UniProtKB/TrEMBL annotation:
Belongs to the threonine synthase family. GO terms for molecular function: pyridoxal phosphate binding; threonine synthase activity. It catalyses: O-phospho-L-homoserine + H2O = L-threonine + phosphate. The modification N6-(pyridoxal phosphate)lysine is found at residue 112. This is Threonine synthase. Its EC number is 4.2.3.1. Residues 2-80 form the Threonine synthase N-terminal domain.
C-alpha cells in the first residue's frame, strides 16, 4: 500500500515510511491511496476471532509488505497482551438498543492505548531496520500524552516531548504523564490551549532547523498508523452485533476527529455502518461544520470533558479530502485559507459526501444527565467524554433493530471529580495506576510561545 498526502505535493510513502514520518512534508496528512475492501463473506469469516488476530486481519492490507502477516500478528499479540480485559475492547449492553464499547482497558485507561501500544512496537521495529532514532513531538489534551509516554518510556531509540495545556487536564491525566521519570520522557506544560500546542507541533515538523538536526515523529492521530489501529474495534463491535448481516450505528465522543474517521474508514472497507454520530461538547466546530457547512474555529472553552476541548480538528482534513473528490491541490488551498482565517465553508461535494455522519452538541447538563442515566438505568459509571457520546446516541431515531454503540473512550477514574459531581459516585483508581498520587512529578512550564518550546526541544533532544 502507498500513502498520499491530502495536500497533493509530498512524496508518496509505504507503510513503514508513513509511520515514521507522521505529518506530510507539504503540511497535509497521509491517507492510503485507495481503501482496501472486504467482501461480506470475508467479514463474516472474522466472527469470533481473538482481538489480536482480528486486528492483524483488518490491518494487513494497510501494512502491505512493510511487515509479514506473521510478524504483524506477533506485534498485535504483544500490544494487546497488556490489556486488563481478555476481550481487549469488551461490549456492554445498556438497554434494548444502546451499547457501550469499552476502550479503556489498556495501561493508561483511555482508548489511545489501543493504537499507541501497537505504535510503540512499530516504531521500534522500523527504527531497528536502519538503526536510527526518532524524536517524537506530540500535543495532548490529556489522554494521548500518557498513552504515548507509556508506549515509549525507556526505549533506547526514541525520545518524547509532550506538550499539554497547563491546568486544563485532570489531575490523574497530568500525573499519568509527569510521574514517568524515564530519561527519554520530557513533559512540557504550555500556557495555552490544546489547539495552541497542536499548532506548535505542526510547526516543528515544518521547521528546517529542527528537522535538519532530528528525525521528528508523531504520536498524535496525524500519524496514519494511529488511525489504522482504531479501525479494528469498529469491526470487533459490529461483528458481535451481527455484521455483516446487520447494520450498526456508532456514537463517538469527538475532538480531533481521529476516532470517528477510523469509523469512516471501516465503512469504506465494507463494514455495514448505518450512521456515525459525531458527539461534541460546547467546543462544537465539528457540529457546526456537519450541520451547517461552517468550519470556523472559536476560542476553546474549558469543560469537564477536557480531552474534547479542541476547535481545530486535524483529521477533518482527511474526511474533506476523501469525500470531496481527493483533489490534493484544492485541499491544500482550502486548508491554507483556513490556516490564515481560522474559518472555511465546506463545498457542496464535501457536504454531500459526509452523508454517513450526523452530529450532536452536548452541554454540561446534557453530559451530567447522561452520566446519571447510565448509572441509574444501566448500573454503569461512565466518564464525561463517554457521557457526551451516550447523550448523542440516545437522540438518534434509528430503525428498530439497529443497535447504537457508544465508544467509551476513557475510564471514569480519570475524571473522578466530574463523575462524583454528576452521580455522587467517586470512581476507584484501578490498581495498575493506584499509587499515582504518591509519585514524584517532573515537568517544565513554558509560555505559549513557539520559540520557547523549540529552544527547549533543541536544548534537551539527545
Ligand atoms: C477520552 C477521550 N474521548 C474522546 C476524545 C476525542 O477523540 P478524537 O480526538 O479522536 O476525536 C479524546 C481525545 O482524543 C479523548 O481523550
Ligand atoms: N484528545 C486527545 C487530543 C489529541 O488527539 P489525537 O488523537 O490527535 O492524539 C488527547 O487526549 O490528548
Amino acid at each position: 500500500m502507498r500513502y498520499i498526502s491530502t495536500r497533493g505535493t509530498a512524496p508518496t510513502l509505504d507503510f513503514a515510511e508513513v509511520t515514521l514520518a507522521g505529518l506530510a512534508s507539504d503540511g497535509g496528512l497521509y491517507v492510503p491511496e485507495h481503501w482496501p475492501q472486504f467482501s461480506s463473506a470475508e467479514i463474516a469469516a472474522m466472527r469470533g476471532l481473538p482481538y489480536a488476530e482480528l486486528a492483524a486481519r483488518v490491518m494487513q492490507p494497510f501494512v502491505g509488505e512493510s511487515l509479514t502477516p506473521d510478524r504483524l500478528r506477533e506485534l498485535c499479540e504483544q500490544a494487546y497482551g497488556r490489556f486488563a480485559h481478555c476481550a481487549v475492547t469488551p461490549l456492554k449492553q445498556l438497554d434494548e438498543s444502546q451499547w457501550l464499547l469499552e476502550l479503556f482497558h489498556g495501561p493508561t485507561l483511555a482508548f489511545k492505548d489501543v493504537a499507541l501500544q501497537l505504535l510503540g512496537l512499530l516504531f521500534e521495529e522500523f527504527l531497528a531496520r536502519d538503526e536510527s532514532r526518532l524524536t517524537i513531538v506530540g500535543a495532548t489534551s490529556g489522554d494521548t500524552g500518557s498513552a504515548a509516554i507509556d508506549a515509549v518510556a525507556g526505549r533506547d531509540n526514541v525520545e518524547i516531548f509532550m506538550l499539554h495545556p497547563s491546568g486544563r487536564v485532570s489531575d490523574v491525566q497530568r500525573r499519568q504523564m509527569t510521574t514517568v521519570l524515564a530519561p527519554n520522557v520530557h513533559n512540557i506544560a504550555i500556557d495555552g490551549s490544546f489547539d495552541d500546542a497542536q499548532a506548535m507541533v505542526k510547526r516543528i515538523f515544518a521547521d528546517a532547523e529542527v528537522t535538519g538536526r532530528h528525525r521528528i515523529g508523531a504520536v498524535n492521530s496525524i500519524n496514519w498508523a494511529r488511525l489504522m489501529a482504531q479501525i479494528v474495534y469498529y469491526f470487533a463491535a459490529a461483528l458481535q452485533l451481527g455484521a455483516p448481516d446487520r447494520k450498526v450505528a456508532f456514537s463517538v465522543p469527538t475532538g480531533n476527529f481521529g476516532d470517528v474517521f477510523a469509523g469512516h474508514v471501516a465503512a469504506r472497507m465494507g463494514l455495514p455502518i448505518e450512521r456515525l454520530v459525531v458527539a461534541t461538547n460546547v467546543n462544537d466546530i465539528l457540529h457546526r461544520a456537519l450541520s451547517e457547512g461552517d468550519y470556523s474555529a472559536g476560542e476553546v472553552t474549558p469543560t469537564a470533558a477536557p480531552s474534547m476541548d479542541i476547535q481545530v480538528s486535524s483529521n477533518f482534513e482527511r474526511l474533506l479530502f476523501d469525500v470531496g473528490g481527493r483533489d490534493g491541490m484544492a485541499m491544500g488551498e482550502q486548508m491554507r485559507g483556513f490556516e490564515g482565517s481560522r474559518a472555511m465553508l465546506l463545498t457542496e461535494a464535501q457536504r454531500a459526501g459526509a452523508g454517513l455522519f450526523t452530529s450532536v452538541r452536548a452541554d454540561a447538563d446534557d453530559m451530567a444527565r447522561a452520566m446519571r442515566w447510565a448509572c441509574e438505568e444501566a448500573g454503569e459509571v461512565i466518564d464525561p467524554h463517554t457521557a457526551i457520546g451516550l447523550h448523542a446516541a440516545r437522540q438518534q431515531d434509528l430503525a428498530p433493530g439497529v443497535p447504537v454503540v457508544t465508544l467509551a473512550t476513557a475510564h471514569p477514574a480519570k475524571f473522578r471529580d466530574a463523575v462524583e459531581r454528576a452521580t455522587g459516585m467517586r470512581p476507584y483508581l484501578p490498581t495498575r495506576v493506584g499509587d499515582l498520587f504518591a509519585r514524584e512529578e517532573r515537568l517544565v512550564e513554558l509560555p505559549g510561545d513557539y520559540d520557547a518550546v523549540k529552544a527547549h526541544i533543541l536544548e534537551h533532544a539527545a
